[in-house]
Amino acid sequence: GKGLLNSIMSTAALVPNILLQIALAGISCFFFLKDGRAFFNWSIKRLPIDPDVRLKMVTSFRETAVSSIWATLAGASAQSLVVFIGFLVLGVPGIFLAFGATFILAWIPLMGGSPVWIAGAIYLFTGGLIAKGIIMVIFGLSALFIDSFIRPWVLKGKGHMHPLVSLAAI
Question: What is the pTM assigned to this prediction?
């Protein structure tokens, strides 16, 4: 009981910090959406760099940012599809929920859609379906494996970035 109370109290102590970060992120997003281009133009003029180099830098940054978003979208889609097929083939209920949850969680670095396929595997293991549970783990690991190839391949994008560099960037 004492350990549980300490855990709850330490988690509750983080709430004000998290709420403050969410509020600051929301305010920042509002102003970047409202005046983002003006802020960008103002700040780029203050860089002590030759205008030609500045233009190349801005173009490279824009291409990298767009490629990063497309790479994450492609990786999330691939993970979601593999988990969806795994749930469908193995008869795990909630396949559409699993697809959506995997897609959303795949945007979170280092975690990805793992909680979804792990939950599916636990469901199968607790139901006594050991072979299906193992196959679900294989589906989940293959989703992570596929994501490790799709993201770098899409991330190299227009910038023709080497796949090893893009994998490190991810």
Answer: 0.65
